[in-house]
Amino acid sequence: MTNETSLPAEDGTFLVAALYHFVSVPRFADLREPLQALCEDNGVRGTLLLAHEGINGTIAGPHAGIRTVLGYLRSQPEFAGLEHKESFAAEMPFLRMKVRLKKEIVTMGVEDIDPTRSVGTYVAPEDWNALISDPDTIVIDTRNDYETAIGMFKGAVDPNTKTFREFPDWVRNNTGLHNKPKIAMYCTGGIRCEKATAFMKEEGFDEVYHLKGGILKYLEEVPAEDSLWEGACFVFDERVSVLHGLEEGEHKLCRACRHPLTAEDVTSPLYEAGVSCPHCHATRSEDDRLRFRQRQKQMDLAKKRGERHLGK
C-alpha cells in the first residue's frame, strides 16, 4: 500500500542521504527495531549499519521522510553530531529498507583501529586539488577494483583490492609508499578513509590526509572545469554512478556480479541482462546462468505487472 510519505517530492525526485558517524554506541542493538519501523513508516528505503563503533549507510525516500529519520538519529545522544551528504534520484534507488547489526560499520578486519582516537588530517574539497598536485604527495584510492574501474582522481594509485580487508596487507607490502612525505587518501563518502588513515598512522606514516566528505562532496562542490576527477563515481544503489553535480551517470549494473557496466560492456556478446557480463562470464557455470535467467524472468514479469521483484 502506498501512502503519502512514500511518494517523491513535487519535482518528482527522491532525496538520497549518505551518512556515517564513528562513536561508541554500547546500546546499538536496541536502536535497530525502532529505526527500522521509523524508516518504513516514512517511506524510506536503503541500508543502515549499526555497530559498537557507530552508524553507516545510505537511505532514500520522500524529502519529509528523510528529514524525519535524520531528525530521529540526531535526537539520540550518540548521533547528535551526525553529518550527511545529499543527492537526488529520479526513481527510488533502493528496493527495501534494511537496518543491520554488524561488528564494524566498515569492515577492515584490523583490531583496535579507532578513528575517534587517531585519524588523518581532513582536506576540504576546495583544497584537494592543490594537495594531490603536490609532487611530494602519493594519492591512494581506498575503494575496490569494481569502483575504481569507472573513475579515479588523476594520478591516483589503485590498490586493485577486491575487498577493504585486503587494504592493510597492500599497504604493508608496498614499501614505496614511504618514498614521499605525504599520503592523500580518498573514497566514496569518506568512511573508509577514516579507518584507512587511522591504520596508516598506526603503521608509522606521519603526514596522512583524506578528502573530507569523499568523492561525493568533491563532485558536489568543485566545478567540472576545475576538476581533477576522471570518469564517474560508483554508488551503492540503483543509480549505479554519479557525475559532477551528483547527476546520475549512464552506467548499468550487472545483476550477476554487481559490477558497473559501460555502454561498451552492454554491447558485448558476453552480456546478457541479469545473467552475465564481460567481467563475470568466465567465472559462472551454466547452472549459475540458468538460475540467473529464471530470476531475470521473474523480474521482467513483475515489471510488466507494475511491481518490483525483490528477489532474495
TrEMBL record:
Residue stretches making up the Rhodanese domain: 133-227
GO-annotated molecular function: oxidoreductase activity, acting on paired donors, with incorporation or reduction of molecular oxygen; transferase activity
The protein's name: tRNA uridine(34) hydroxylase
Biological process annotations from GO: tRNA modification
Top-rank taxon, per record: Bacteria
Annotated SMART domains: RHOD (SM00450)
Entry keyword annotation includes tRNA processing: yes
Function: Catalyzes oxygen-dependent 5-hydroxyuridine (ho5U) modification at position 34 in tRNAs.
Family from the record: Belongs to the TrhO family.
EC number(s) recorded for this UniProt protein: 1.14.-.-
InterPro entries cross-referenced by the UniProt entry: Rhodanese-like_dom (IPR001763), Rhodanese-like_dom_sf (IPR036873), TrhO (IPR020936), TRHO_N (IPR040503)
Enzymatic class: oxidoreductase
The keyword Lipid metabolism belongs to this UniProt entry's keyword annotation: no
Catalysed reactions, as listed in the record: uridine(34) in tRNA + AH2 + O2 = 5-hydroxyuridine(34) in tRNA + A + H2O
Keywords: Oxidoreductase, Transferase, tRNA processing
A Pfam family: UPF0176_N
